[in-house]
Design brief:
Number of helices: 13
Distance between the termini: 41 Å
Shape: globular
Number of domains: 1
Length: about 300
């Protein structure tokens, strides 16, 4: 009798990528909802305090290892760029710009990471792969503009751009550190350092928790558990299994997912133009992920 076949490593990789994309796609919607009762700094500190607590038992169970002193400066930079600067800037940006604009600007991240991986890790894409990058970016533009109107480049938009630059630094450094440590270790240490650095910006968090509606605080709890902790674990795992360009290409799905989840959770009905842009984004992500591998020499 044949045993049932298990999932292949490639399918496990795709499921992890899809899980992180879904969690982060909801994150844009969750942040907007939580900002009704919390300041950007309070939300960032509260969310990553929760994420830090969630990760602690996993870290302890797997040996409670600490980084070496020579790697600590790079891990500290990862914590600052990937969690402190990134989250404070995204939260602050979403106070003044729409989710569609934020999602469009978020599409800068996979492009920055693909370019960074090319120059720092000698990762290459075929012409089809690079074409997929531009097709996916075009789809993101159509999706974001179709859902929320034309782009208004405000101070909030500049903050989101800064967040994307910061996140790309985190992603590239993480790829380097994964040669020495596990995805769990890298994610846990970075989040702890990033959370500590957010303390000066989260003043009044305790009072805000007492005054905020329970539903909003529950929303912050979910942001800490899923987009805050688990999605970053999946992101680190997938980065250890494939190249940065392929991991980053899945981030093109975030605007589509954010709009769909916004429709389901907030009653925002996507337009036909938004759905068309989403289809183009999916095509671009497919080209980068499936058709972009360089032939082996």
């Amino acid at each position: 009798m044949n045993r049932p076949s298990s999932l292949s490593p490639q399918w496990i990789l795709y499921l992890c990528l899809a899980g992180s994309a879904l969690g982060w796609g909801w994150g844009w919607v969750g942040i907007r909802a939580a900002l009704e009762a919390y300041t950007p700094g309070q939300l960032a500190l509260g969310r990553y305090t929760i994420a830090s607590i969630v990760l602690f038992p996993f870290w302890a169970w797997h040996g409670a290892h600490l980084p070496t002193w020579r790697h600590l400066p790079l891990i500290a930079i990862m914590g600052m760029t990937g969690f402190s600067i990134y989250n404070y800037c995204v939260n602050s940006g979403e106070v003044t710009i729409t989710a569609g604009t934020a999602a469009l600007l978020g599409a800068l991240l996979p492009i920055l990471m693909a370019l960074g991986a090319r120059y720092f890790f000698s990762e290459k894409l075929t012409h089809v792969g690079w074409g997929g990058v531009f097709i996916a970016f075009s789809g993101v533009v159509i999706t974001a503009m179709g859902a929320h109107g034309s782009l208004h480049f405000s101070s909030g938009a500049l903050l989101v751009v800064l967040a994307m630059v910061s996140a790309s630094i985190y992603g590239l450094l993480m790829k380097k550190m994964l040669s020495y440590y596990s995805p769990l270790e890298i994610t846990t240490w970075s989040i702890w350092i990033g959370t500590f650095a957010l303390i000066p910006f989260g003043g009044g968090l305790s009072k805000a928790v007492l005054q905020a509606p329970p539903s909003t605080t529950f929303n912050m709890l979910l942001l800490g558990i899923f987009p805050g902790a688990l999605c970053y674990l999946l992101y680190a795992y997938t980065s250890s299994k494939t190249n940065m360009a392929q991991v980053a290409s899945w981030m093109f799905l975030l605007p589509l997912l954010s709009i769909l989840l916004g429709w389901l959770l907030l009653g925002e009905l996507p337009t036909l133009m938004a759905f068309a842009g989403g289809a183009i984004t999916l095509l671009g992500a497919y080209l980068v992920n499936v058709r972009s591998r360089m032939p082996q020499s």
